[in-house]
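protein under study:
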Amino acid sequence: MRILHILMSIMIASAITAFAQEPPPAKVVVAKVAQQDVAENQSFIGLFYYDRMSRVSSEVSGLVEKVEVREGRRVKKGASLVRLNTEILDKEISLARTRVEQIQLRIQHAEKNYKRLDSLYAQEGVSEKDYDDSLFEYQNYKMDKQAAEKELDKLQLLKRKSVIKAPFDGIILEKSVDSGDWVQQGKQLVSIGSTDDLLVRVPVAETMLQFVAVGDKVPVVVNAFNKELSGTIDDIDPTADEKTKNVFLKIRVPMLENIAENMSATVFVSTSSERQLAIIPRDALVKFQGKDFVYTIKEDKASILPVNIVTYLGDKIGADNPYFAAGMPVVVEGNERLRPDQPVVIAGEK
């Protein structure tokens, strides 16, 4: 009897232990697998660059008074980049204005004299020579004024050119001068890249050109920040690499903060024609020993399935595993701590 009691105690303890080890039901949110005709894609590493750049130089010589930008600073079109000292130029402009005013006074005096002699000449009260001299003087002063005004315009133009401005919205890539530097006409002052023309240059095999076209949308991941965004194939280089035969795709992306030329990006480019694939939310993916899996629900328990990803579609992926069917539930929330065969309770659906 004592032995039977001991055996029953052992069985009860074992059952309690087994029950205690069984994972409790987990609350999860699921989404349904879809089927869609899409192309496979493959990741390629490209480099950021500015497709439109300007090496801004000075049209006039002068002493740099102030550099108003720093490398990495964004600027708007027409913003002041560098100012040259115009102290001497300002005095020349002032003198030129005075000269124009002086000539205007002479014109007014000559005009009165000409009109007076013109009236007298009509009455034969003055010689033809005196009349001609007054007309010449009047017209000559008017021409002097035109020349003086053009000289003033030239000096004012030089003053405007002494403020070097941004040719377009952009980011300062390089600054070549500083306050106190003397610059000659044509010297590069700053280098600016257009913020509307940030591209990623990606080498791909020539055989892939049959699967891509200008205007196609492609996923792009900025490797430095692990940030994903949508890019557009803007152009295809007309010249292939002589050795590798690779062709470069130009992928246009929106402007980002803290992007430097030659930083890397991962671009997913189509490598096949369209075929039917299972479309699964990326939130459903879990990693195990470096491989991708998803959890589905079978008989109120979690069932883990491997995923063969053949294309990336933003917040979704395309898989070609034959067991994924349209409408199959996959866990998108609560899958981080799930274990195979763990009981689950569906708390919602996305």
Notes: The chain has four domains: 23-40+276-349, 43-50+196-271, 55-85+162-194, 92-144. Residues 23-40+276-349 form a domain with the conserved putative lor/sdh protein from methanococcus maripaludis s2 fold fold (CATH 2.40.420.20). Confidence is low (pLDDT under 50) at residues 15-20. Helices lie at 2-21, 87-122, 128-161.
